[in-house]
Amino acid sequence: MRNNYFLKTTAACVLFAATSFAGTDDTFLLRGVTVHPVTSAVIDNTSVLVRDGKIAEIGAKIVAPKGMKVIEGKGLHVYPGMIDSGTNLGLSEISSIRESVDTGEIGVFNPQLRAEVAINAASEHFPVVRANGITTVITLPSGGGRRGFGGGGGEDSPMITGQGALIHLDGWTWEEMDVRRMAAMQLEFPQIRTVPARFAALAIDAGINIPGGGGTQAAKRTFDAQVKKLNLFFEDARRYQKAKIAGTVGSHPDLKFEAMIPVLEGKVPLAVSADREKNILEAVKWAELQKVKIVLMNAKEFGNSLATLKEKNIPVILGPTLALPEYDDDPYDQAFTRPSEVFKAGVKFAFGSFNNEFVRNLPYQASTAVAFGLPYDEALKAVTINAAEIWGVSDQYGSIEKGKWADLMITDGDPLETRTQIKQLFIKGKAVDLGNKHQRLYEKYLARP
Amino acid sequence: MTLRTLKQRLLITAFAAAAATNLLAEVTVIQNGTIITITKGTFKGSVVIKDGKVVEVGEKVMVPPGATIIDAGGQFVMPGIIDCHSHIAGEGNINEGSVSVSSMVDIKDIINPEDIAIYRALAGGVTSANILHGSANSIGGRTVVIKTRWGVERAKDLLFEGATPGIKFALGENPKRAGNVQQQGGGAPARPARYPATRMGVEDVIREAFNDAKAYQADWKEYNAKVAKGERVAPPRKDLKLEALVEVLENKRFVHAHCYRADEILMLIRVADDYGFKIRTFQHVLEGYKVAKEIQQHGAGASTFSDWWAYKLEAWDAIPFNAAIMQKKGVLVSLNSDDAELMRRLNTEAAKVVKYGGVSENEALAMVTYNPAKQLGVENRVGSIEPGKDADIVIYDKHPLSNYAKVQKVLIDGKVYFERDKDMSGRSLKDAEKKKLLDKEKADQERQRNEQKKNAPTRRPANAE
Fold it and tell me: Which residues of B touch A89 (CB under 8 A)?
């Protein structure tokens, strides 16, 4: 799976001309590159020593030990591989074909479901996405595409949809792709929803009753019932946790409640979908009562909730920056300026695609945010180190630092610019094949007589 | 006041300012910018606009006295973007899906100049768009080209005067969906299936329709010939559905055909060959790269997405190199949006064909300006910055292929229709206006409640709800 494409192209690539293949394939010296560590200042014309897949040293004066593979990267740039914080990659192949989609299980509470075990390691999406410098994604058990992150709906609509996995976009099996098997527990937080949702929301904010409506009251009743149900589930889970500690669970463990224990212990965050100010504040209030750690997913309209998020230290995964404004009379650039507003409020954030077909365009969510006010360095962090921090793996991933895994992309320029080419990608120090279905069809049909 | 009218009032008041910025001066000069003409090179220089038309473009130009100056120092000046596939500005549903052939319906009849998507597209540098019918039928409704003249009151003022009208055709999954009835949501009764349900049926529907159109055309020819000879005969019955197809046969109406797979693209080319008409553009045409040779030989244009794929089976072999391959094989290629959001950043869609397939930067930008203009038959009016052409111009703060570029100003017919600075500075005013309207509505409701209380009987009957 690895290397074939690399080997094929190396011969033709002057920049890698000094490559020699002695030594193991995850040990090498990358020479003459500009390093963008993300967590510290850019270092021009330096070298990176990777040993056994980890970054061993960074510095201009490193000399390759005898026999070590040397990669000449003069004029090229090295960045940490990018991380997408909201996808269904591997769970969904063609979003309109039910048989190829494994998101969205039946049932209200499914904490025992593991996204990871349903990840098709041979999915055509992985090579396509990684070709643009994305090494890692979180794959969530529900949402994305048509089955929508954010949910909402009736009293019996799903709430806890399962465990999201942080995965590398390379590996023969899902086990080999594993970065953090249970990176998050997904919760579709109940929402006050009426039809038409947009006007109802506007009306609620303004304290206006919808003429002939009555929908808001019904929606509030559904919301209350859902929250009650959610609280009862947590109560039961806590009782189970206590019984477990007391050793009174017996010989028949409950798989749902077992799966909740890391959440109750604060070891795994809840990835909570809540998109608007009121819902966000309700979710935050609820999380505080339940004493659980949350990450806010795909929030769109923060209103006055940002100060609260900052105060409670709750990170946010921003949904697509490349989106239309919420309401007709919102500023045309509302979604473009949102990351900048979240940054200014001091809230930690990362980006998620929330749509499988466009995961490779993750960096352009970030650059559009830069065009509309977000400092460049913050945009870069939002697709690297911030994501690693939010998903609890920043000790090993997310930046170019001594001791971290060598998840690296080598580019001919700024990776947030569309025109930039990704020249090479390493996951845990191993060169990853940049070829994919699209490249293959390109070559095949370009050659059609 | 209903919320809908409230919404409309908000929009009208909020954007009245934008409409009022139209310059009164007859001559405008855009100075000191990097002028990307598309057809005549890129250079630091100026554009002189008179009465809505470009009259001079060059490194050094004479600035007529009294001219309005737009300083584009450090900025990039490009022809306005043309989106060859859009559904904005359509009021309500743009899909008359009840019949297999709906060539009697016309998008022109439902153009809504108040659709906020027009303003948003404008703010993304779009000055013209091909507004299409939906893709539910093998032969869909008639289409129309508009300019994004936000602020005009009448729908007809949005229309691109003189542009050849079009008609939407659709192949593949969408038109056959009506024949493969799926369970509808919410317990709604299943709709009866209608022909066609297969790609074979889609071909047949188109052939049958042109069969009828040819006969209809012959009937009228015969009638006209008789009338010319002075015979008194009854005219054939007018058929609005077939009239549009006769226009296609007579090259008076362009066919824009929604398609995905190579087989269906080739099928339509052969049908068109048989009936003696041309496909003006294949739309989406995601497998166009597989039959680029045949598309080129037919002389059709191709208007595609930059990198959409995998959202349905017929998009499974879609590749971001599609535009590059077709262009290399001699097809006239444009990039379109089909989406009110994507429409706002077709400039960076163009950057994707530089990335995937190595199309030159100028050719990539041509794919969202000059090429779609040619496909729509309006290249003598728009699509490049040249003397004699409409002054439809967009000014960016950075190179338009950069993801960091923002549209600063947009001119149509020489008038400024979008200015980022004005949009920004007008926002507080707009917010205040919105608050005032909401407060008024709240007060009205409060008053109504009080009146109801006052008028209510003091004792309600026992069986009241």
Answer: none
What does the pLDDT look like over A438-447, one tens digit per residue? Answer: 999 999 999 9
DSSP element (H, E) containing B44: strand B42-50
Picking from A94, A210, A332, the nearest residue to B120 by CB comes out as A332
pLDDT tier at A3, thresholds 50, 70, 90: very low
* Chain B CA closest to residue A334: B120
CB–CB contact B340 A324 (8 Å) = yes
C-alpha dihedral, B86 to B89 to B91 to B92, nearest 10°: 40
Q: Residues of A numbered 216-245 whose beta carbons fall under 8 angstroms of chain B's beta carbons: which are they? A: none
Consecutive H or E run containing A186: strand A178-188
Q: Which residues pair with B126 in a beta bridge?
A: B81
- By CB atoms closer than 10 A (0-12, 13-18, 19+), residue A87 is buried
User: Model-level pTM?
Assistant: 0.91
Determine contact, residues B356/B66, Cβ cutoff 8 Å: no
Shortest Cα–Cα distance, B92 to chain A (Å): 15
Name the residue among A128, A329, A418 with its Cβ closest to that of B351: A418
Judged by DSSP in three states, A325 sits in coil
Q: Which two tokens stand for residue B151?
A: 């602020």
Q: Which of A107, A30, A71, A135 is nearest to A434 (CA)?
A: A135
What are B128's two structure tokens? 């013209």
A44 phi, psi to nearest 5 deg:
-80, 150
What is the three-class DSSP state of A188?
strand
pLDDT digits 0-9 by tens, A93-128: 998 999 999 998 999 999 999 999 999 999 999 999
Quote the CA–CA distance of B441 and B445 in Å, as a whole number. Answer: 6
Rounded to whole angstroms, the Cα distance separating A242 from A244 reads 5
A328 and B116 within 8 Å at the Cβ level: the answer is: yes
CA–CA gap between residue B339 and residue B86 (Å, rounded): 6
Nearest-CA distance B341 → chain A (Å): 6
The residue among A1, A14, A105 whose CA lies nearest residue A423 is: A14
